[in-house]
Amino acid sequence: MSYEKQVNALLLDIYDKILVTEEKALRKGSFKDISVAEMHTLEGIGLYGNRTMSETAATLGITTGTLTVAIDRLVRKGYVERHRDQNDRRVVRIQLTKKGKLAYRMHSKFHRLLVERLVSPLDEPARRLLLETLTEISGFIRDQHARYTQPGPSRQPEGAAQ
Fold it and tell me: Buried b / exposed e across 37-76, counting CB within 10 Å, b at 16+?
């Protein structure tokens, strides 16, 4: 197998396993009633946030309408509370409840363990190289995301057959 195919296979395997592991961990844990997407919404709100809906939607890269649907579910499930801003009643603020903060911390622990396992055997030059490589991957993914989520004519990814 070529080097490029090995890298691609590893990236796909990592991506798939992270998604599946997050989903299964939620299903077996104390937070069976929450999806991975909802957990990521909690992350977008943040532990100490008293954020507006628009700030949170922008952080998550979704519309406020999409966020409203997610927040409605999370409020019903007891993970989020929502209230009007005292200074501007048009503004809706959201924050995690105690239950939401606990779910956030449990999910965050998974990510922390993943990073610790990845970087603990690395010396400083290897850590720098890993960070540079991940930064490049992130930049490429961000550029592709922008190409497909911004309005305008549909475009092929760089290097794709026309």
Answer: ebbebbbbbbeebebbbebbbebbebeeeebeebbebbee
